[in-house]
Design goal:
Chain B: The chain crosses the membrane at residues 12-35. The structure holds two protein chains of two kinds. Chain A is of the alpha+beta class. Chain A has helices at residues 2-7, 14-75; strands at residues 79-87, 98-103, 108-113, 121-124, 131-132, 135-138, 144-149, 154-157. Chain B is an alpha+beta fold. Classes of the chains: A alpha+beta, B alpha+beta. At the A-B interface, helix 2 and strand 1 of A face helix 1, helix 2 and strand 15 of B. Strand 1 of chain A pairs antiparallel with strand 15 (268-280) of chain B, so a sheet runs across the interface.
Chain lengths: 158, 283
């Protein structure tokens, strides 16, 4: 009986065998390609986070720079009337639009992408002379501006 | 015949495996290219020290222009010439580093005894710290600018507190002075001109008045501060030695408000109004 099964080459017909092989190949391909998509997706999110960190650190550094300039001016007994820094950011990072929020209470720059909460990045900034006005801006503007308002002694973004 | 058929199948399987490897590699490479392409460049201004340097250079240029044009009073034409040349040179040299530099200044004003010389400046401030000898100490108070009912005082203090002070109060067109050792009043005087030479014990030009400043501060390490400097305007000169042996001289005759404007690479703009006390307002 056992011998019979082993020797039996005709368990499936050639046509059924072909269909079976084809379907197994298709399923395997779908799984392989799908796993690549998942990998790409994860990669995209990590790229977005990296990008936000780069831009966030730039902003944090520039906020500190403006704060230092205010401090230098104050040391001379002067008044910083207007300090502004214009910069541009890409309209979309990793195919998604995003928002930049300055938070005065937590002293953080928060980047949020529309792709979801996994890409949220928070970067701490430091100021000593002035404070930061809480505000939120969205990507897609031609340029952004960090500005210092002498009357309120606040650094803001617009 | 049968054996070579098997070998051909092995080649087929091997080529399939190689094909798969190429696909995987291509996908991986593609994702790396994707990552590097989306990385945007940083274009941040990394420092503000050039701003600090520019402000310092400008302040020094004003001090030099003042001493160059001062002969009893400031020669405005000479002063403006000097600043004009300075401004042109600064604009030229800044242009090479992508900075547009502009300065403009207002009129000379009589300085208040505040830190920056303006009426809204810091009223209580330390003029010079840690000195052990004062060669010259002269104050000229403008009694007409003196706010009635306010007290302006100059104090010498060390770790134990105030060791000497002179309090100035307006009395009509006169300025009343009362000198203390920090606790008890040592002497008083009503000055008609407001001009006091504290280190030489002279008042109103050549009248003698003992300020006890030299006696009270002799052999001590002390600092000098102004209290309520916004009460009146006037000029002063303090010169002497700090404890590390360096000489210092602080002299104020005028204050001028200067606007410094810098635009760097078109995207960083700074605009500050800096009062400069002349001829040498800071130690």
């Amino acid at each position: 009986m056992i011998k019979k099964i082993k020797d039996d080459d005709n368990a499936v017909s050639i046509s059924v065998g072909t269909v079976l092989m084809l379907s197994i190949t298709v399923i395997t391909l779908v799984v392989v390609v799908g796993s690549f998509y998942t990998m790409m997706d994860r990669h995209e999110r990590s790229v977005a986070r990296d990008q936000f960190e780069i831009h966030g650190n730039d902003l944090a550094l520039q906020i500190s720079n403006i704060d230092t300039a205010v401090q230098i001016t104050n040391n001379y007994g002067g008044k910083a009337e207007n300090i502004s820094y214009q910069f541009s950011l890409p309209a979309a990072i990793a195919r998604h639009q995003y928002s930049i929020e300055l938070s005065n209470s937590t002293r953080e720059i928060i980047f949020r992408s529309e792709s979801g909460p996994e890409t949220e990045v928070k970067i701490t900034y430091v100021t000593s002379t002035s404070s930061v006005a809480s505000n939120k801006v969205y990507s897609g503007q031609d340029y952004f501006e960090l500005y210092y308002d002498a009357n309120s002694n606040l650094i803001g973004i617009r | 015949m049968r054996k070579s058929d098997d070998a051909a199948q092995m080649i087929l399987i091997a080529s399939f495996a190689i094909g798969m490897a190429v696909v995987v590699l291509t996908l991986m490479l593609n994702s790396i290219i994707f990552a590097s392409n989306t990385a945007s460049e940083s274009n941040v201004e990394t420092n503000v020290y050039d701003y600090s340097n520019t402000v310092q250079v400008t302040v020094e240029a004003y001090e030099k222009a003042y001493s160059y044009s001062y002969n009893g009073s400031v020669n405005d034409a000479k002063f403006n010439d000097y600043i004009g040349v300075f401004s042109r040179k600064m604009t030229e040299s800044c242009a090479f580093c992508g900075v547009i530099y502009t300065i403009e200044h207002g009129d000379f004003q009589e300085p208040y005894f505040t830190q920056n010389g303006l009426i809204d400046g810091k009223a209580n401030w330390t003029v010079i710290e840690r000195i052990n000898n004062t060669d010259t100490f002269m104050v000229a108070i403008n009694s007409t600018a003196f706010t009635n009912g306010t007290v302006f005082s100059v104090e010498a203090f060390d770790l134990s507190g105030t060791i000497w002070s002179a309090k100035f109060v307006r009395s009509g067109i006169n300025v009343n002075v009362s000198v203390t050792d920090g606790v008890t009043v040592l002497d008083t005087y009503s000055s008609s001109s407001g001009e006091m030479n504290i280190s030489s014990n002279l008042i109103d030009g050549s009248s003698f008045f003992n300020y006890y400043f030299n006696d009270e501060t002799a052999g001590k390490t002390y600092s000098i501060r102004f209290i309520n400097g916004s009460a009146t305007s006037g000029t002063f000169l303090i010169a002497g030695d700090t404890i590390n042996g360096n000489q210092f001289e602080i002299e104020r005759i005028d204050v001028v408000e200067t606007r410094i404007e810098m635009v760097k690479n078109g995207n960083l703009k700074m605009n500050a109004l800096i009062p400069i006390t002349l001829p040498k307002g800071q130690a």
